[in-house]
Amino acid sequence: MSLDFLDELERLVIDIAADDSIRAVVITAEGMDNFSVGMNLKQLPEGIQRMGSMRALLDQRLRVIAAIENMGKPWIATLFGYCLGGGLEVPLGCHFRLAADDGAQIGLPEMDLGSVPAWGGSARLSKCVGRDHALDMILRGKKISGGEALRIGLVHEVCPLPELKERAVKLAHELAAQPALAVRGMLGVIVGSEDRTLEELIEAERQAVDRCHGTPDAQEGIAAFLQKRKPVFNQGS
Length: 237
Fold this sequence. Notes:
Layout (H helix, E strand, L loop, with lengths): L2 H16 L6 E3 L16 H8 L2 H16 L5 E5 L2 E3 L1 H7 L3 E5 L4 E3 L13 H9 L1 H9 L3 E2 L1 H7 L4 E3 L1 H16 L3 H11 L7 H15 L3 H11 L11
Parallel strand pairs: 1-2, 2-4, 3-5, 4-7
Antiparallel strand pairs: 5-6
Helix pairs in contact: 1-3, 2-3, 4-5, 5-6, 9-10
């Protein structure tokens, strides 16, 4: 992930967030060899010079991943080949992760470089798979397979590599067909729910209910149920 790539990703994330016609996003890589080995370390000195400090450089990465996570539109990441460092930390900010059932090497191996994950990886991984699995992966610099990632809850599905991108796009279409306001509401409730009390989550859910009540999608959903047909949502967007 070069400096220019991260700059472009940040611009794209802002544009996607503002475009109501986009209701789900797949993030993948060109070709079928690897998703990403993370930051181009050869560019680290240049990145610090560009941004003014190491903290500012890392803040950009944290800002981009947080924007993906909190956008209110589901993001789907495809994990295949090497998915290391930032190549796992970006997917950890996504809402769905699909992995190849063979050949994936997934991990946060920063210990091998005498360092630690710096793009929110330790925090998000521990929330995703629990403390014990996170410690096992990070402190030992482990690279795990797609099957192991599924077993510990790091990914939602595995499938053969040739089918992975097609499966991700199919899932994106499925999610995009759901009522957009309701999807946004549930992402707002569930993302970050570990940090909120039950009462706070119930209040957030109530607010989502209020926003959905009486909308065209809600009316369509009830009509379709009564008419025993499949609903067609987002007709006004």
